[in-house]
Hints:
The complex is a heterodimer of chains A (226) and B (302).
Chain A: E1 2-10, E2 16-25, E3 30-34, H1 41-48, E4 56-61, E5 64-65, H2 74-79, E6 81-85, H3 96-105, H4 111-124, H5 140-152, E7 158-162, H6 170-185, E8 189-194, H7 197-203, E9 206-211, E10 214-219
Parallel strand pairs in A: 3-8, 3-9, 6-7, 7-8
Antiparallel strand pairs in A: 1-2, 1-4, 4-5, 9-10
Helix pairs in contact in A: 3-4, 3-5, 4-5, 5-6
Chain B: H1 4-17, H2 19-55, E1 58-63, H3 69-81, E2 85-91, H4 93-103, H5 109-112, E3 121-126, H6 132-137, E4 150-154, H7 157-198, H8 201-209, H9 214-259, H10 272-297
Antiparallel strand pairs in B: 1-3, 1-4, 2-3
Helix pairs in contact in B: 1-2, 1-9, 2-7, 2-9, 2-10, 7-10, 9-10
Amino acid sequence: xxxxxxxxxxxxxxxxxxxxxxxxxxxxxxxxxxxxxxxxxxxxxxxxxxxxxxxxxxxxxxxxxxxxxxxxxxxxxxxxxxxxxxxxxxxxxxxxxxxxxxxxxxxxxxxxxxxxxxxxxxxxxxxxxxxxxxxxxxxxxxxxxxxxxxxxxxxxxxxxxxxxxxxxxxxxxxxxxxxxxxxxxxxxxxxxxxxxxxxxxxxxxxxxxxxxxxxxxxxxxxxxxx
Amino acid sequence: xxxxxxxxxxxxxxxxxxxxxxxxxxxxxxxxxxxxxxxxxxxxxxxxxxxxxxxxxxxxxxxxxxxxxxxxxxxxxxxxxxxxxxxxxxxxxxxxxxxxxxxxxxxxxxxxxxxxxxxxxxxxxxxxxxxxxxxxxxxxxxxxxxxxxxxxxxxxxxxxxxxxxxxxxxxxxxxxxxxxxxxxxxxxxxxxxxxxxxxxxxxxxxxxxxxxxxxxxxxxxxxxxxxxxxxxxxxxxxxxxxxxxxxxxxxxxxxxxxxxxxxxxxxxxxxxxxxxxxxxxxxxxxxxxxxxxxxxxxxxxx
Lengths: 226, 302
């Protein structure tokens, strides 16, 4: 589903973020990307949604090489890759329903589809009753669940999560992980960057560890490491 | 795929959500364009007054008393054939005396006059008054003497020179002020709209994140910019309309009555006010849409 071939990323200020990365993530996998801050996790995720461009190598998403993707085709790529961030990125002046519906509206989906899909995905994340609330009326954990709902509402085959539990307490984090597992169970490939040791250890999924831009470990049913 | 309804409803929903920024942008457009429009009308009227003063510049060509009828006719034909000439009016010796008597009625000077010492003359008005110097020179030969039959040519040289240098200065200053005002208006409106887009960069970020195409992101903002420019210009036209009706037009009536000037911005037949309104209208919408477009470039590239 996602493949990196000899990918390197050097930023304009000459910081080397990723060095010669080779990695294959299969369809339906759940992969943790771990490593200390500055190890290249965020760069890895930004490359997949083409928020930044690689310096060398090639990246395949859904069997397509995205390196020479024309700027006009980038939105199409992003519709296939849902994204969840540490800071939720919800729009404060819109209700929960509007926030989630926004993701469908801006890709031009018809109203009847929005009326069906949004309540469905809100049920999936367990917040159907908060339909008309505003983000500030929700707890941080609830806001993150809304942001997952928004990323998943158009059923993308891939879901990326960059430190989705970074701002949450352990109990709330467990709730988030349950939702991500559920999404993974219905066939979605999930890649989650984190440095939350407890979560990684309790999930027992594939673990890819980055350090200073290089993969130092790739383990099936792995743990966070020592 | 494309839903026009979405763009319209999105435009108005977002105007409601971002009421304060939209209100600021509309007010900015309204006030700046109002000032530009008002100033343009005032400058137009000042130019009209100057033009009418200029058009009063005329040459008096005094003729020798013994000029033959043929020569007199020849000189008149000649003057009429010049492209600068607007009109030629012959004033005979008798008419000149009659005029002099009227102007000096009751004065002792009339008693002193014996016979008719006043010369006959041609009063020449020009289409291009600023060429009065060149025209006056045509009544002299190569050595600088007056041509046969002409005794003197008078046009108040110093006064005319001063008049034209003053009008040139006023014209340049007025043009500069309008340009500066216009530029200030454009920069101010542009910045306000850019600020309102900056305030919503998060929204744009999310739109791009979930895969909205660039045009999908842009169009509501362009609509909004246009709507703000358009509403602002309508408000400034309404303001101008009231100022014109209750202030400028009254002033113009007084100017028209006392100075006999016809070509005025509001009460004149030239429909200048109409063009100013149209100009403001087009400018408002255009600035709105162009500002949004430029401001968006920073957030919507790829």
